[in-house]
Specification:
heterodimer; A: alpha/beta; N-utilizing Substance Protein B Homolog, Chain A; Rossmann fold; 3 domains; B: alpha+beta; five-stranded antiparallel sheet; 30% strand
């Protein structure tokens, strides 16, 4: 038997968190690269939980460091900075007893190759424990370190959803277990729940989303019954609404314009035998669509192309149904993607809004008369959602918004907005646009 | 002492079921020495005789970092096992492939040493994983056999590609 040389779990987590929070890399990518050095699955799960919690808490606990250090840490000690943030996260957010967190963090400093800084790590964490009450009061006095969200986003939340800002902030900082989508083409949800129960996995059917199963705790999804046979996929309940809102019947000609990673495309295919084209700009991301289709035993036409430039890929035959799951700020899914808050800037918004508008304008002519385009984002910002669609409707006389009514969320302008945490769902916006047959 | 050639998946000889050892002689002692040399050089933490095309129930392992806890099991048999653990296993016969495998957390094994003396060992964690992995080899079984058909096919393609590249290089 051979094995990878086991690494210190906290040191691996600290290095990963530094790359995410200080190096600007995506959490998903960094974890995929760093976790395999931990051979034991429970260590990988712990490191992953640490990195997620560290990214969620970064804007709070990193803000505490200047008060705990004599002078700022030099840039080359980024992993050590992340280790200190993880030390505070463990004590304050994860309920690790203080003495255990301090001892393990000091040991991890050695594993990081910062033997000389072990005393510093010990001093910083002990000072936190001594001055904790005063320091917590200071962190709570600042809006950013209290909410753990960047200032631009807090301002946008208060402007767009003043009555809901507090609950959005709470939901965005919550740790949530995965939701599954049961592949109805391979079996019923009731049967799959029985398989889960037989495997001693605690799970519950979602109250009103027919394909959704909520797990009680996170786990390695490849351990789920029937995972490799395509019995289920991981997808938030809010995203599982896309297929039923698009409601493409058997034989429909469907375009999924921004398809990667392919969850919604797969769901559309699981529901009915449609002819689906999955378009994606990035070839590497299209590979994920291909893998998901293969695992779920589904078939679609895959195309690399820029949805705003149909001339470069479109065959000239209109679609009866188009799903435009547009690139967006991802402000509705902060709870599942805790790194978004660290990477997204207010200055990214104008380009995203312009891109969404360009996508709507370019895809509308590809829709058959009487056909439906479903506009979707995982944003909670009105500029990307209700205002975007309202402007589109004003400019396109042959477009009308069809009503949406769901048990969670509310109508917002011409569409429907679910805010994060409502009925346990991610924040999503949907608008159903029909092309009038005569105008 | 000699370093031996390690068979690689999907070599059919890896599927041979090993025979019990009946003679505890100099040839057995030499085989054990060679197994250790081959394992340490690889580097690995366990090696079964099957992997070097000797089909006798002999395995060696050493999960220490400093190569100072060598363990030889001749005719090993599991008396008891308990619990489960998941470890990302690799195998010298399936190079550079690692996959999570579920095994018993604790095993009690009875075996003979190289001189034929019977002993019992109760162990857990990595050493327990390693012993179970090597005992599988003696039955002609590989860790990739525990993977889903889809994943096993991926492993086979990956290794085929590497073998082709090695052949043309």
């Amino acid at each position: 038997m051979s094995t990878v040389t086991p690494a210190d779990t906290r040191a691996v987590a600290a290095r990963a968190l530094a790359e995410i929070a200080l190096g600007g890399r995506s959490l998903r990518e960094v974890l995929a690269q760093q976790l395999p050095q931990l051979p034991q699955s429970r260590e990988r799960a712990f490191a992953s939980a640490l990195v997620h919690a560290g990214a969620r808490g970064w804007l709070r606990w990193n803000a505490a460091l200047p008060r705990l250090l004599q002078k700022p840490l030099p840039r080359r000690l980024g992993a050590l900075q992340a280790l200190l943030v993880l030390g505070l996260t463990q004590m304050e957010d994860l309920g690790v007893p203080a003495h255990a967190a301090v001892a393990a963090t000091v040991d991890a400093a050695r594993a990081l190759g910062h033997d000389a800084q072990r005393g510093l790590v010990n001093a910083v964490l002990r000072r936190w424990l001594r001055e904790r009450d005063a320091l917590l009061a200071r962190l709570d006095a600042d809006a950013v370190s209290r909410a753990r969200l960047p200032n631009w986003l807090l301002q946008a939340l208060h402007a767009d959803w003043p009555a809901y800002a507090a609950s959005i902030i709470n939901a965005s900082n919550a740790e949530v277990p995965p939701t599954l989508r049961v592949n109805s083409a391979r079996g019923s949800r009731a049967d799959y729940l029985q398989c889960l129960a037989a495997a001693a996995i605690d799970a519950q059917a979602h109250a009103w989303i027919a394909s959704a199963v909520t797990l009680a705790a996170s786990l390695d999804v490849t351990r789920l019954p029937g995972w490799f046979e395509g019995s289920c996929a991981v997808q938030d309940g809010a995203a599982q609404l896309a297929a039923s809102l698009l409601d493409a019947p058997t034989g429909a000609r469907v375009l999924d314009a921004c398809a990667a990673p392919g969850g919604k495309a797969c769901h559309i295919l699981e529901r009915s035998a449609v002819q689906l084209t999955a378009l994606e700009l990035e070839p590497a991301r299209l590979t994920r669509v291909r893998d998901n289709l293969a695992r779920l035993r589904l078939h679609a036409e895959l195309r690399v192309g820029d949805a705003t430039q149909p001339a470069t890929w479109w065959d000239g035959v209109t679609y009866t149904h188009i799903l435009l799951d547009a690139p967006c700020s991802a402000t509705g899914v902060l709870r599942r993607q805790p790194d978004v808050r660290l990477h997204r800037r207010a200055s990214d918004l104008p380009a995203l809004i312009a891109q969404q508008r360009a996508l709507l304008d370019a895809l509308w002519p590809l829709l058959a008369r009487g056909g439906t385009l479903l506009y979707a984002t995982c944003s909670i910002l009105r500029s990307e959602n209700a205002a975007q669609v309202a402007a589109f409707l004003a400019a396109h006389g042959d477009a009308e918004a069809l009503p949406i009514a769901l048990p969670a969320g509310r109508a917002d302008g011409p569409g429907w907005q679910i805010l994060p945490g409502e009925d346990g769902l991610d924040g999503m916006f949907y608008a159903r646009l029909r092309k009038r047959t005569a105008c | 002492m000699a370093k031996l050639e390690i068979l690689e998946f999907p070599d059919p000889r890896l599927r041979t079921v090993a025979q019990p050892v009946t003679r505890f002689d100099a040839a057995l002692a030499r085989l054990v020495r060679d197994l250790f040399e081959t394992m340490y050089a690889a580097p690995g933490i366990g090696l079964a005789a099957t992997q070097v095309n000797v089909h006798q129930r002999v395995l060696v392992c050493d999960v220490s970092e400093d190569h100072d806890r060598p363990l030889t099991l001749v005719n090993p048999r599991i008396l008891a096992q308990d619990g489960t653990q998941t470890y990302q296993e690799g195998c010298l016969s399936v190079p550079s492939i690692f996959a999570d495998i579920d095994r018993a957390l604790t095993v009690t094994v009875e075996a003979e040493d190289v001189e034929g003396k019977t002993f019992t060992l109760e162990t857990s964690d990595l050493l327990a994983v390693c012993i179970q992995h090597e005992m599988d080899h003696l039955q002609g079984k590989l860790f990739v056999d525990y993977l889903s058909p889809l994943k096993r096919e991926m492993v086979r393609r990956k290794l085929d590609k590497r073998h082709r590249q090695a052949a043309t290089a």
